[in-house]
Write a structure and sequence with these properties.
Length: 169
């Protein structure tokens, strides 16, 4: 892969970095518009069956990922609901939100980590460098999501984002 992602866990913070061969404005749109998110959000074999985006500070993105890959036998047919509550948005530069596990009604899942995510989009040699900093309530909460396989899931998700960006340029 030409642009691998780097993943670092430091205390209660998880830092993801990757350079995408696409303009910053396009990478930003891919994270802010439902018509883009539906094409790439989630690991391989998963699809968004629900994707409601109210992209503004105080707005909510509520979504459902469903496993449609029969080869993922343990997960096939499984639904995973999530909700982002946007805190700050700087067009083409930054998105800050709290990331929750939720149910189909948007109720936040009790006992599940809810990190504060700060994503920055910067120009980098004609490409876009994306840095995602996830601040978890504790190091234990971060370990919980890592143990759930989050690293593989986010790597596959960002690979799908890269493929989507290449397909629309």
């Amino acid at each position: 892969m030409s642009n691998p992602m780097t993943i670092k866990a430091e205390g209660q913070e998880l830092i993801l970095e990757r350079v995408f061969n696409a303009p910053r404005e396009l990478v930003f749109k891919a994270f802010s518009q439902a018509e883009h998110l539906k094409h790439w959000w989630g690991p391989r074999g998963w699809t968004l069956t629900v994707c409601n985006v109210d992209f503004r500070p105080g707005g909510i993105w509520h979504y459902c990922m469903k496993c449609v890959d029969e080869n993922q036998s343990d997960f096939y047919g499984y639904e995973s609901w999530g909700k982002a509550v946007y805190q700050e948005i700087v067009e083409a530069e930054k998105i800050v939100y709290v990331d929750y596990f939720s149910d189909s009604e948007g109720n936040e899942a009790e006992g599940m980590p809810a990190p504060l995510i700060t994503m920055t989009f910067t120009e980098f040699e004609g490409k876009t460098k994306l840095v995602n900093r996830a601040q978890y309530p504790s190091a234990e909460a971060l370990k919980t999501v890592i143990d759930m396989g989050m690293e593989q899931g986010v790597t596959e998700t960002w690979d799908r984002l890269d493929e989507h960006l290449q397909s629309i340029q």
